[in-house]
Each structure stands twice: as structure tokens, then as C-alpha cells.
Amino acid sequence: MKELLAARRIVPAVEGQLRRYFLGLVAFGFVACWLSAGIVPAMLGVAASAAVVAGPTLLQRKPRAAHRPPRPVRARPLRTDDGLPLVPDEPSLVVELG
After folding, report:
1. Can you tell me the mean pLDDT for 26-48?
2. 34: buried, middle or exposed (CB in 10 Å: 19+, 13-18, 0-12)?
């Protein structure tokens, strides 16, 4: 069980590292393309890489959540007449202003 929990913590860290490496690679490619071919091909390359990375996520259909009625409120009603005083039992807990 502990191994599974540890593996779940490692996966987001690895994904974050891969994401940073990928962004670094895209930035390097952008600068290299900008220096060699100009800004227009560099911007087209960034747009193409963004479309390749984000395209499948944007095109994936998400299932719609079924409409549910609102949940009933299960809170207890507040009682003002408990008969209990609203002062602490310990004198050291009394806060005096002034």
C-alpha cells in the first residue's frame, strides 16, 4: 500500500519535469528557428507544436454530467436556548481588553 502511495506522488513530479524539458526544447527550437529563418517561421513552428500538444486534449469529448437535483441540507438547527453559559471554564482563558 505504501508503495502505491509513493508511486502516486512520483508521477506528477515526473510529468512536471517532462513538461519543463519539453518547454525548454520548444524554446530552443524557437530561438534557433528565429535566428536562422526569421520570426514568421518561428511563430509558425510554435503554433504547430502547440496544436500538436494541445490538439488531442481539446478534441477529446468530455461526457456531460447528468443533471442532479440539489442535495438536501442536513445541518442541525441552531439552538439558542441550551442553558449553557458562553464563558470559558478556566479563568486563564478569559480575554480582557484594555
Report:
1. 86
2. middle
